[in-house]
């Protein structure tokens, strides 16, 4: 996930909650991932592959959110390298 937090107690292994990080950006990334999952493009194929592998839709959307962050970080890095 983006910033997973374990929800474990004793022998119970719960779901990881994405609560860390910047809360203002999470809904923006969620809507971007939702749009990418619905529209044609490479991210839609990633979403469909995750669903086909048995992931729940919300887990697949969280993975898509993280993928968007990785893509944006790489583009920012490349633009900064071009400026120097």
Automatic annotation (TrEMBL):
GO terms for molecular function: DNA binding; transposase activity. Residues 1-44 form the Transposase IS116/IS110/IS902 C-terminal domain. One of its GO terms (biological process) is DNA transposition. Residues 1-21 are annotated as: Disordered. InterPro entries: Transpos_IS110 (IPR047650), Transposase_20 (IPR003346). PANTHER family: TRANSPOSASE, TRANSPOSASE FOR INSERTION SEQUENCE ELEMENT IS1111A. This is Transposase IS116/IS110/IS902 family protein. It comes from Stappia indica.
């Amino acid at each position: 996930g983006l910033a997973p937090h374990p929800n474990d107690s004793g022998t119970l292994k719960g779901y990881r909650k994405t609560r860390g990080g910047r809360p203002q950006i999470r809904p923006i990334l969620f809507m971007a991932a939702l749009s990418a999952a619905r529209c044609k493009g490479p991210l839609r194929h990633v979403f469909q592959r995750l669903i086909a592998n048995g992931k729940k839709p919300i887990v697949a959307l969280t993975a898509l959110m993280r993928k968007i962050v990785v893509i944006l970080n790489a583009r920012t890095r490349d633009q900064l390298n071009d400026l120097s």
